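Researcher: I'd like a structural prediction for the single chain below. Treat it as a standalone chain; there are no partners to consider.
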Amino acid sequence: MRLGVLGCAEFARRRMLPAMAAHHAVEIRAVASRSAGRAAATAAPYGARPVTGYARLLADPSLDAVYLPLPAALHADWVEAALDAGKHVLAEKPLTTDPARTRALLERARGLGLVLRENTMFVHHGQHAVVRRLLAEGAIGRLRALHSAFTVPAPSEGDIRYDPELGGGCLADIGLYPVRAAVHLLGTRLDVAGAVLSVAAGRRVETSGAALLRRADGVSAQLTFGMEHAYRSRYELWGSEGRITVDRAFTPAAGHRPGLVLVRASGTETVTLPAEDQAAASLTAFAAAVHGRAAGAGEEAELLAQADLLARIRRAAGLGAGD
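Model: Treating it as a single chain, here is the predicted structure.
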């Protein structure tokens, strides 16, 4: 898969570009930036061609796909431009900041015969497939509740996550993870029972929040998230006969060996799994979709449910799209 990178975000340079360079199914062909120097510096370690300007990269007929790590507020327009240029697209999360625009872009991609994916990497990590298998097998009895938390220390001053014009705020950047975990583990039919979003003094975006989701059968999800906190990345599933705890659930290091804790009346068991690079797993899933080896209906349904829930949590908390 001949790939172009649309932007030189720190996350792309630190995490995704090295994963792409090491991946057998990906070849980094070009890197674009509005700055010629930044494009050159980012492209050089990978032998890629630097391009000044995003539109120039999209005009390159040799590229099969683009990876888009731009600020969230810019995603929708550049995703649309990439699709219109005939490129498959892997965009950083959130795909857009508006559920209607997300739906429209997914429909546009389908109509053009192109693959459009959001790079929510954790859902491709094998530990969550094991959790879903344990639930299906009734390892903890009947599921009763999900408790999930993702909190991170404060970004540096001037970080785009503090800029509302660029789509900043903790809900779509950090809260997205426990929301997607709820969708991934509980299904797409979830309602918002309540939500709180708080803006720290001196900030123009929400910096912490919580949400309560519910399923029609009474299963609930309690979610906590924030970006000026001590680090926490975990979820617990509570059942009628036990519970499953997953630590480092959302951003495990590539060398981390997950240890799922399974507690039942008969005792406590730790299920130790192999280390896995979820960035590589996400790229593998994207490449398989591009080459027609993987259906995307389930992932698309989860993405749409996630987009709807993020918007409904914002409304339930009393913050409008422009607040």
